[in-house]
Structure formats: C-alpha cells, structure tokens
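Continuing the batch. This is chain 6 of the set; chains 1 through 5 are on the previous pages. Same settings as before, nothing changed between runs. Recording input and output for traceability.
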Amino acid sequence: MLKKYILVFLVSMVPLIELRGAVPIGLSAWLGDPLPILPLYILCIIGNMLPVPVIYLFARKVLLWGKDKKYIGKFFTFCLEKGEKGGKKLQEKAGKGLYVALFLFVGIPLPGTGAWTGTLAASFLDMDFKKSVIAVMLGVILAGIIMGLVSMGLFSAIGAMLGI
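Output for chain 6:
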C-alpha cells in the first residue's frame, strides 16, 4: 500500500500528468486495492503543488538564461515567446478576472492545462505570487474533485439514471 501512495505522489508531480493522472491511478484496482479517497486527494494535492513555487520563481529565469545558449537557445526562445504571447492573450481576454481565469484554467482537466502550465503563465504575466499560488491550488482541488467523480463513474451512473 505504501508503494501505491508513493507512486501517486510522484505521478502527481509529473508535468502534463499531474493530479489528473494520479487520482485515477489511486482509485483504480490497477495496482491492488483502491486507496482511501481523502488521503489520496491530500497526497495528490501536495504532490501537484510542490513544484509550483519553484516553477513560478525560477522557470522563466532558466528560460531567459538559456535563450542565447548554443544548443538550447532556439527551444528556450521559442518557449519564452510562446509563453509571453499566450500570457498577453489570456490577460486581454480575462481583464480583471485574471486570477479566476487562472483558477479555471488549472481546475478544468483538459490536455495542456494544469498547475505546471498555469504557474508558468502566472510567472510570465508577473501575477502576484501569493494570489497565483492560491488560484492554482484551488484549481488543483477542483481538478481533483472532477477527476475523482469521473474515476468513480458518477457521471456514468447519472447518465444511466437519466437514460442518456
């Protein structure tokens, strides 16, 4: 059982997979008995949030440092330009509701969204660190709830009851 807890903790830290992949793994019988839901959520949220301050504080600095390096420069420059362009676009659309937009971006489990991407966007936009971390954390909690419900088949059960 400890191995499964460690696995879901580590999976929740992986970019692109994050909590969205760790919750279904923890709730499945794939590696043995499903984990109890409350400890699973807490562990996945901690694992997903652990890299957030590091990403916010250092990712852009690393990209800026590497943009003029021989082998990695083109890729780092591409990442910087893409991040700045995407951040400005989000800021124009969201206006004053930027933190709500960040919360929803992280909270709705779609490909390419999540704590890593949301935090990097917040860093590019020079959003307030504390407010950004709170918005990302609330988004991670929402994503965990959605993934838990989907993993437990609640939506399928509701659909069956409604005849959909």
